TrEMBL record:
It holds the Pfam family Thioredoxin_9. It comes from Jeotgalicoccus meleagridis. Gene3D superfamilies: Glutaredoxin. This is Thioredoxin family protein. It comes from the Bacteria.
Length: 182
């Protein structure tokens, strides 16, 4: 098992991570600026959890754009420290948090006061999964030219949906708070 505290100590701050954003920066900033954190009981539980968060992510990932913009804003409101380890630079860490054998991101690891894993969230909230399944249900067979063309369109539709749906943002926030404070 990897030493999570060591990864946390060398990971990017949220500001440093935001500086790595390129094509998804506008969407990230839009969500961050427009999303309003719901300060309910689950927020208080999250805020009082005494945890810090280690995130495995990449700046080119649309799911990271959606989830990290909400997580960063939530963590600022709750005064929770967050650091980001880039997936492609931290293979040993990523290999400890595979989803069905795949390196799917983001993964959010809540660390207790001793730097040990207390909870893991990711790679996406249930509502995000439903949206993704709906957008990809009619894709042509993988490996064909038609698939590649349509898949690029679906990725664009997904990025658009992610950056324009306050209902989705609220669902992501609720799921993050629930899982990370459990």
């Amino acid at each position: 098992m990897v030493n999570l505290q060591e990864y946390y100590d060398k990971a990017l701050t949220t500001s440093e991570y935001r500086e790595t954003l390129t094509t998804l920066e506008d969407g990230f900033n839009k969500i961050y600026d427009e999303h309003e954190v719901v300060q309910d009981q689950s927020f208080e539980d999250f805020k009082n959890s005494g945890r810090k968060l280690l995130v495995i992510a990449e700046p080119w990932c649309a799911h990271c754009m959606l989830n990290l913009s909400i997580l960063f804003k939530l963590s600022v409101k709750a005064n929770i420290d967050v650091k980001v380890a880039l997936r492609d630079e931290n293979e040993e860490l990523m290999n400890q948090y595979l989803t069905n054998g795949n390196k799917v991101i983001p993964k959010v690891i809540a660390l207790d006061e001793d730097g040990q894993e207390a909870a893991v969230w990711g790679p996406k909230a249930p509502m995000t999964d439903l949206i993704q399944k709906d957008l990809t249900k009619n894709l042509p067979e993988k490996g064909t030219t038609e698939y590649e063309e349509r898949f690029e369109e679906v990725k664009k539709e997904m990025r658009e949906k992610f950056s324009t749906s306050p209902e989705l943002w609220d669902a992501v926030e609720a799921d993050l708070k629930k899982v990370l404070s459990a």
